[in-house]
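Hi support team,

I've been running sequence recovery on a batch of backbones for a student project. Most finish fine, but this one hangs at about 90% for roughly twenty minutes before it completes. I'm not sure whether the input is malformed or the queue is just slow. I've pasted the structure tokens below so you can try to reproduce it. Let me know if you need the job ID as well.

Thanks,
M.K.
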């Protein structure tokens, strides 16, 4: 069983477009969308949900007005300014509260209660490309790294139960906590890079992250013909650092047309889809050789 995680230094590089094409081409796999803050792979794959689970993380804090003696100790203790005085006593602002629980633990009158915080939901679904594990945090919620780890655990469990050979993951963009969780335990990372100065900078960040966790990195340069100098610089950086350059994709308005139809590029006969098939074949050979 191999985990392949598709990543990018920022959003909008074409990561999900590439992942959808690979999901169409790959056999005996489980698909996992790890971009839990702003998922969009489900838009293309149109999954039919078979299982829904609530995701809880952190604490929700509330003050019982019947028990509260208005001593103000909770407001003094709160380092985040989440407890404010009201006409009826004191109240907790959920947007400021970090769920640390200090106020509840040290309230002299035991007037503050805590409960697990419902942050979002995660799903196991059937898509036209196969079984899919995905999630959605509620707006403004945190702990996406923990939710990513939960999704990977579920995907691995299902892969073992069903004898799947590949877990194909659409990772989170950037280099933060959810990306680190996305890469944890993976055998190969595929970086989708744009040929711009900022794209090359972002590529350097994800390359350093993969190097730190000793995960092989293969690279796809998207929209490579828009800036040949930057594409060449990225290719040179790959060669210097030992990363495999899987291939380049040209800019083509066809991508938007096919995305609007909610399809993968490889579901129809077109030059971009054929190029992605070649890249997938190259990735398969790379996977076999490692």
């Amino acid at each position: 069983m191999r985990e392949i995680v598709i990543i990018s230094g920022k959003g909008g590089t074409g990561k999900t477009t590439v992942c959808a094409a690979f999901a169409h081409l790959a056999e005996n796999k489980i698909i996992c969308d790890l971009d839990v803050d702003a998922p969009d792979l489900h838009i293309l794959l149109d999954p039919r949900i078979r299982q829904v689970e609530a995701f809880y993380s952190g604490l929700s804090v509330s003050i019982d007005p019947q028990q509260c003696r208005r001593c103000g100790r909770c407001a003094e203790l709160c380092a985040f300014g989440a407890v404010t005085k009201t006409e009826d006593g004191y109240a907790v602002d959920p947007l400021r509260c970090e769920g640390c629980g200090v106020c509840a633990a040290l309230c002299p009158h035991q007037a503050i209660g805590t409960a697990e915080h419902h942050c979002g939901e995660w799903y196991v679904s059937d898509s036209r490309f196969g079984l899919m594990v995905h999630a959605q945090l509620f707006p403004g919620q945190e702990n996406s790294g923990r939710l990513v780890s939960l999704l990977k655990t579920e995907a691995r469990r299902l892969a073992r139960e069903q004898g799947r050979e590949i877990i194909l993951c659409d990772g989170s963009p950037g280099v933060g906590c959810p990306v680190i969780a996305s890469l944890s335990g993976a055998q190969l990372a595929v970086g989708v890079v744009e040929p711009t100065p900022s794209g090359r900078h972002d590529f350097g960040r994800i390359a350093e992250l993969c190097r730190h966790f000793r995960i092989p990195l293969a690279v796809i340069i998207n929209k490579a013909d828009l800036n040949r100098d930057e594409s060449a610089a990225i290719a040179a950086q790959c060669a210097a650092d030992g990363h495999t350059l899987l291939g380049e994709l040209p800019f083509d308005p066809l991508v938007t047309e096919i995305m609007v139809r909610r399809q993968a590029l490889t579901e129809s006969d077109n030059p971009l889809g054929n190029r992605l098939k070649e890249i997938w074949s190259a990735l398969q050979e790379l996977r076999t050789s490692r």
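--
Follow-up from support: It reproduced on our side and the slowdown came from queue contention, not your input. Residues 2-46+128-289 form a domain with the Rossmann fold fold (CATH 3.40.50.300). No action needed from you.
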